[in-house]
Design a protein that fits this description.
The chain contains 13 helices and seven strands. The protein is an alpha/beta fold. The longest helix has 29 residues.
Length: 298
């Protein structure tokens, strides 16, 4: 099998390596001349045997829309596009409809595994028609972890289902990470515990909180026991927001995921306007002291 791969960053580049190791020929395209196999997207399409399969692995949003639209002009009826970025599931339906008019199949695939996927395999959640999923299974089998097919792979449903599943997966991930983070802060704040990294290490076996995220926490603490080299500023890539929005749309309470998302927002505020308002109110109704930001005369 020979496929095209658009996007050769941290995820896409490692996926190309894993696919090639499994015997799948890959022609990759990226704007970076140091990583790309061909000069243009058109050159990549021309290098593929028909019917073609092209995997798009670029950041969600406009860059994904641009690539899918351009592929719609370059590919032919019978070809297939697999969109593996963290796109919103509603975008998939638009892309699928646009490509269907040209006779091009479309699958959306939520991909989890990060930089470790190259050796550990990737968790794949796919949306699309069953016959299209089956056609692309050699690619999915090469990327997912070794073992039974259901280990690391799921056909989530119709187009959009793969990215919807990945969205919820990432919402859960937000909440788990927040719980570990709060536990770390509490352990670090007390005199009752003198070796916080040892606690996390001990949790890796025989406890109900053991997980890959816990393993990664242990690795981080080994490299920097007090996390002094890391800023307390946390970005969000969008899936947490979308998960909370879907909870609202479907009247499903997601308070834990919502709280973890808001915690990331708080991390970006050096001096929270909301906390300023609370301090001012406490001063007004109770005469509680307020820390001034002004510096008086020396």
């Amino acid at each position: 099998m020979h496929i095209g791969l658009v996007g050769l960053g941290k995820m896409g580049g490692n996926m190309r390596t894993r696919l090639r190791a499994a015997g799948i020929e890959v022609t990759g395209y990226a704007p970076d001349p140091s990583t790309t196999d061909v000069a243009t997207l058109a050159d990549m399409v021309a290098a593929l045997p028909a019917p073609r399969i092209v995997w798009v692995m670029v950041p969600s949003g406009e860059i994904t829309r641009q690539n899918v639209t351009e592929l719609g002009e370059l590919l032919e009826p019978g070809d297939m596009v697999i969109e593996g970025g963290n796109s919103r599931f509603t975008d998939d339906r638009v892309h699928a409809a646009m490509l269907a008019e040209k006779g091009i199949a479309y699958l959306d695939c939520g991909v989890s595994g990060g930089v470790w996927g190259i050796t550990e395999g990737y968790g794949l959640m796919v949306g699309g028609a069953p016959e299209d999923v089956e056609r692309a299974m050699p690619v999915f089998d090469a990327l997912r972890p070794e073992g039974a097919r259901e280990e690391g792979f799921s056909h989530a449903g119709p187009v959009g289902g793969g990215h919807y599943a990945k969205m919820v997966h990432n919402g859960i991930e937000y909440a788990i990470m927040q719980a570990f983070a709060e536990g770390y802060e509490l352990l670090s704040a007390t005199d009752a515990v003198t070796d916080v990294p040892a606690i996390f290490e001990g949790w890796r076996r025989g406890t109900v909180v053991r997980s890959w995220l816990l393993d990664l926490m242990v690795t981080a603490l080994k490299e920097d026991p007090r996390l002094e080299k890391v800023s307390g500023y946390a970005e969000d890539s969008g899936e947490g927001r979308w998960t909370v929005m879907e909870g609202i749309a479907n009247a499903v309470p997601t308070p834990t995921i919502a709280a973890s998302l808001y915690a990331r927002f708080v991390s970006r505020q050096e001096d929270s306007p909301a906390m300023k308002a609370i301090a001012a109110l406490r001063n007004q109704f109770g005469g509680h002291s307020v820390r001034s930001t002004t510096v008086g005369p020396a």
